[in-house]
Amino acid sequence: MRNKLTLAIVLAAATAVVSIGIATAVDVNKLTYPPLGKIEIPKVERVELANGMILMLVEDHELPLVNFRALVRAGEVFGTGGNAALANVFDEVQRTGGTEKMTGDEIDQVLESIGASVETSLGTSSGSVTAQFLGDQIDTVLPIFANILMHPRFRQEKIDLAKTQLRSVVARRNDDSFGIMQREFGKLLYGADSPYASQMEYSDLKALKRQELLSFHSRYYHPNGIILGIWGDFNTDAMRSKVTNAFSSWQRSAIDYPPLPEIDESVAASVNYIEKTDIEQALVLFGHLSVRWDNPDLPKIQIMNSILGSGFTSRIFRIIRTEKGLAYAAGGRISPAFDHPGTFFSFCSTKFATTHEALTAMQDVIKDFREGGVTEEELTVAKDHYLNSFAFQFDSTGEVLGRLMTYEYYGYPADFLQNFRKGVDAVTQADILEVARKYIHPDDMIILVIGDDSRFDAPLTDLGQIAEIDISIPEPRSDEVIALATPEALARGRQLTDKTIGKLGGPGPFAKV
Hints:
Radius of gyration: 29 Å
Helix content: 40-55%
Strand content: 15-25%
């Protein structure tokens, strides 16, 4: 009965809307809206424990859940001993390998029985351990969470399992064309040996030892390198006390952080091609290194992004897809990074027969953008879109706290996003033209095209000298030890060969081959 009543209400409302639409034409340009509500940042209690760990706590009693997120100053940028597999295996086995007191399987059983989760990760520039659970299970989950942070065991059987799973990742890495595009473009921008473009091989997995994982943890996982965010249904004083006790035995330690890897920002323009004939569309991507998030022009760049290539109303999308019909997906933007130069890029996927046309059309859009600037209407739409969507960057306590943790981790001010919003509000047409000319360099583009060049509408050599990229996957090396070719070994080999030939009918049949 309730479902039928609900359906009747929905149908009645829909009929009313349709009737209104038929009776009265509404000019959407005349619609008015109330001013945006003020965004309230929840109160965050920040505490530094005696061992150097930073706690950031926010009470949120809407749901009976508690969330932990430990942000660890670790990652590939600090060095993995040259083994690109370390971060991937560490990411998985810090959790599955269990702790000194419990195996990973035992932890699974406990957490599953109470509907809780604890997960780990290790990325390019940070590591993390997260947990979610019902608030009344804190005394069960907190010791597990703390011990995974402090005392992971990296049990060998779980390392072996992770390696087996990751070998399949290596084997399948060329199945996804967009994955190839992203991976190889990163190498072209940052260098193949850079942690910002690392690539795991079978040989890395084979060479990785358990001791390397333990050593990495011992080097970087210390309380004075951790920010622990906690939000949810708890009392702040009680939670602070429990966390302090859980980590009381973990002493601060001097951490030897190497300098961040240097990036050559003078990478020359180039045209690069990857042959992939088993796809139906060419992928086109070009760009160059760009800026960090702390660049003072970022508010202007954000609005420029919206007008140039981010979204359905952007110049690139409108001209390349809507007007010219050259691509289903097309766009471009400056994508900053927190701790190293980000990128400017423009991309599309297009038919083989329009590859060259689509690429040059995108280049023309960018050049025209830098020369002619933007209209007042484009600016107004872009600013309204950003400012109206700003509130969604604060739509949950976890998201707000996550942003504050990230800003603290990378040394940004806590009010970074609020100041960013104010900067967006002040952007002018002249500002857009200024940053377009300052940060987009058409003559310095690194171009990458993936597809079947025998089916392109024009040769890529029209764009310059071509560098063809080999994406074949090196085969795993055999464990077999090859004996040295000593005189004795050669004589023994001849004896075995002669014996085999004799068994097969003598040298006569072989002479006829």
